Amino acid sequence: MSQPLFNQTLADKIAAAGVVAVLVVDDANDATPLARALLAGGIEVMELTLRTPAALDALRAIRRDVPGMTAGIGTILTLEQLQAAREAGAAFGVSPGCNPRLLASAREAGFSFGPGIATPSDIETALEHGAQLLKFFPAEQLGGLPYLRAMAAPYAHLGLRYIPLGGLTALNAAGYLADPLIAAIGGSWIAPREAIKARDWPAIESNARAARQLAVRRSP
What we know:
Blueprint: H1 8-17, E1 19-23, H2 31-40, E2 45-49, H3 55-65, E3 70-74, H4 79-87, E4 93-94, H5 100-109, E5 113-114, E6 116-117, H6 120-128, E7 133-136, H7 139-142, H8 144-152, E8 161-164, H9 173-177, E9 185-187, H10 193-197, H11 201-217
Parallel strand pairs: 1-2, 1-9, 2-3, 4-5, 6-7, 7-8
Helix pairs in contact: 2-11
């Protein structure tokens, strides 16, 4: 397919950022200070997961109040959620798995979408729909970088890149970022759910700054 599933300019922006903050927000009123804390720490891309009813309202607040933040929606499992994410103004969508119906719908709508992959069959399903930027999930539990390198080898000539998520921490993130397969990492440790609930914005900003430094130091 000639047209990629994920807008290339946006994909390049995410790769330049190096880190995507992955978030569970329980109260939409926390969205604006949360986004500002992340941005102050150098994190410019976030994924708001649809694990709480507040996610879409949080996205709307961030789009209104923090235009410098690129905010997408994750944990998209249904066509209805995909449409809702688009209507709320998500910059991109992400799913934990590789659902062909979601891929087809996102492609038809021209909506940047990153499917989750865990097997070669997942990669080939994603390729059929023009996907070039893939979520590797759950990364550490599947076997981490050694597993990804082995699985990705037959597709290396296609220029696919991956965003690992699942089990990443401040201690192992640098290893992922140093690998050319990795476009960016997904960081749920940067703003843990409990820290958001506690409104500990200074700690979140500090975590964001440390994560961003890992990305800055990665090999070109």
